[in-house]
Specification:
Blueprint: H1 2-50, H2 56-103, E1 121-125, H3 130-141, E2 145-150, E3 169-173, E4 186-189, H4 196-201, H5 203-224, E5 227-233, H6 260-280, E6 284-289, E7 292-293, H7 304-313, E8 318-321, E9 327-329, E10 331-332, H8 333-345, E11 352-354, E12 359-361, E13 371-374, E14 383-384, H9 389-395, H10 403-419
Helix pairs in contact: 3-8, 5-6, 7-10
The structure holds uridine-5'-diphosphate-xylopyranose.
Length: 438
């Protein structure tokens, strides 16, 4: 009985131990499975997140965002392009401004200050031409207000551009064949082509300029009470029968020859001047200008001095028209301008010869260049050498520059003209050398 009870107890104890071991095993096994499940769930979640199918709204938002990104990108590109274009445009404008600023003188030639009582308003017709521009320089440096009127047939802006922007300077592009309404105290009426090939190129226009143009200027002088100086010419003497010619000589002009448009045009201009003086009480001065030369002559002026210099500088044949025995006197431009200023200020009202009295033949003996002679030009005056007794007596004027000095200055000028490579590379106006007037 006791033995049976012991066996029963052992069996019960064994069952209990086995149950305990099983229980522990189960518990351990259960914990392990939970961790795996959690891990598996996480992996699954991640996978789900990776392969999640977006909703329609999400897709729409995404597409809109992409489009806006693309638009922004395109806008950025076009803005960049516009910026580049604007930058290059600005660069071009800056270059232009620099160029234009270069053409506006920073510093003008010295100008005397005149009070309002002494300062005159002076109109110069043909003021951008060879003679006119030198006259303008002197009037400006004297401190007057100068109005230049030019149709630029033979005149050039370049001749007066060193005054552009100056408060005393004004330029009007105008053909004096049409009336002009400005205020002026004095008028220097120089507008007309003066070189034979130029004035013969359009003879009707030359006559109009010297007749209608002169009437317009005399009318203006009458209206505003201005004193007027008419630029006449030695050509009013035509092919003269008297040498040298005094002002009292009436001349020898072919009224229907090739030069008549100029010769007769200027004769009528003189007649008009004295008619306005007599009838309308206009204060007139008449200068009979002889051959003049100097800087600012056009390279294709066509007169003998510019032709010979240009031909010699370029090793071209010197063209002597006729036998070269005809004579001329040559006045340097600054002397002529002094003569015109003196005449305007004087009280002498009859015509005055202004030129250099020393006569020279046109032939060029001993010239190193090839010289060609040709038939004489029709109606070419055989001689033009003036008597300047009137100018000496009434204006106390006589020319000062020798032919040698004047020619040297003119040769230097033409050399510079020939060396010009482009339109802008000769910006010499900053150092324009203006001869001070006495
Ligand atoms: O290449 C040339 C040019 C001109 N000549 C001659 O040189 C002489 C002077 O002729 P220019 O052309 O210089 O001038 P002109 O004397 O004929 O007229 C000038 O005179 C006075 C001014 O007032 C006038 O405006 C201008 O016409 C003329 O005999 C002419 O035939 C040449 O032998 N070769």
């Amino acid at each position: 009985m006791i033995r049976q009870s012991l066996k029963f107890r052992k069996a019960i104890t064994g069952v209990c131990v086995l149950s305990l071991v099983l229980f522990v095993f189960l518990i351990l096994n259960k914990n392990h499975t939970n961790e795996d499940i959690v891990n598996n769930l996480n992996i699954q979640k991640q996978a789900d997140q990776r392969f999640v199918v977006p909703s329609y709204e999400e897709n729409y938002v995404k597409i809109v965002k992409m489009q806006s990104d693309l638009n922004n990108q395109a806008e950025n590109d076009s803005t960049k392009k516009e910026l580049l274009e604007t930058r290059s445009h600005i660069e071009q404008l800056e270059k232009k401004i620099a160029l234009l600023e270069g053409r506006i003188p920073q510093k003008y030639p010295d100008v005397t200050y005149l009070g309002h009582k002494e300062r005159k308003r002076i109109l110069v017709t043909g003021g951008a031409g060879f003679v006119g521009s030198h006259l303008v320089d002197i009037l400006m440096t004297q401190g007057h207000e100068v109005i230049v009127v030019d149709n630029f047939f033979t005149g050039r802006k370049r001749n007066v551009e060193h005054w552009f922007g100056h408060r005393n300077f004004e330029m009007i592009h105008h053909d004096i064949v049409n009336p002009l309404y400005v205020e002026a105290d004095e008028i220097y009426h120089l507008a007309s082509p003066a070189s034979p090939p130029h004035y013969m190129q359009n003879p009707v226009k030359t006559i109009k300029t010297n007749t209608l143009g002169t009437i317009n200027m005399l009318g203006l002088a009458r209206r505003v009470g201005a004193k007027i100086l008419i630029a006449s010419t030695s050509e009013v003497y035509g092919d003269p029968m008297v040498h040298p010619q005094p002002e009292s000589y009436w001349g020898h002009v072919n009224p229907i020859g090739p030069r008549a448009c100029y010769d007769e045009g200027k004769r009528v201009a003189e007649t008009l001047a004295y008619s306005y003086a007599k009838q309308e009480n206009v204060s007139v001065r008449v200068a009979r200008i002889f051959n003049t030369y100097g800087p600012r002559m056009h390279v294709s002026d066509g007169r003998v001095v510019s032709n010979f210099i240009m031909q010699a500088l370029q090793n071209l044949t010197i063209t002597v028209y006729g036998n070269g025995k005809q004579t001329r006197s040559f006045c340097y431009v600054s002397d002529l301008v002094d003569g015109l200023l003196s005449l305007m200020q004087s009280s002498y009202t009859l015509p005055v010869n202004i030129g250099n009295p020393v006569e020279h033949t046109i032939e060029v003996p001993g010239c190193r260049s090839t010289v060609s002679t040709s038939a004489a030009v029709e109606d070419d005056p055989s001689g033009a050498g003036q008597n300047i007794a009137v100018a000496k007596a009434h204006l106390h004027w006589s020319p000062k520059v020798t032919l040698k000095d004047g020619l040297q200055r003119t040769i230097d000028y033409f050399k510079e003209e020939l060396s010009r490579k482009t339109f802008y590379n000769n910006q010499t106006y900053m150092d324009v050398n203006i001869k001070p007037h006495k």
